[in-house]
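Entry 12.
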Amino acid sequence: MSRPTVLVLRHAEAEGNAERRFIGQHDVPLSALGWRQAEALTRRLRLMPITHIVSSDLQRCLDTVKGLAEDLGLQIAADSRWREIANGQWGGLVGDEIAERWPDAWQRYRGGEDVARPDGERWADVRMRVVEAFEELADGLTDRDVVVVSTHGGPGALLAMWATGISGTAFGGPFGPLANASITTLTLPGPRLLGINDVGHLPTDLLRA
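Predicted 3D structure (tokens):
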């Protein structure tokens, strides 16, 4: 019997990912490597019976599935609830810069605490909006639906943790961080987690060490 399936993607590599910047909701483009990753992802997914494409409204997520949508003749439904965490004043910085300016918060963050970014969110906030978006999406699916959701590393990991009953933060749990252009597969009802962080479609030269 067919079951609704949701393929959760982390966007392809974006500018700043390789430097491990806290990009968050900064609307940065894909890197040159990211565009090649997106093409490889498209080649794999266009062979599947995809019925809907949903995406974070940030450009790196939209561009990750742009080619797929064109190939399949589908529209992309943008939803801001699938955005990455709002990093507030940490946005665009690297860890050393954050550690210098907010040493106490950075130490607690590195220790696994769900620290609120200055003028930003906690992971608990992200989990709440992502689960809401997923449950709303799931309510409208039929048994034959296969949905692609193009999102970010934090929301993808948090969704996998929620589906398996694991509490905690996106990068403190067993599933994060997810690789760029990876696929995490869930089925309904449940949801049930069938696969996570699948990068089998990426050849070695498209994997960032």
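Annotation: Residues 123-139 form the longest helix (17 residues). The first strand starts at residue 5 and ends at 10.
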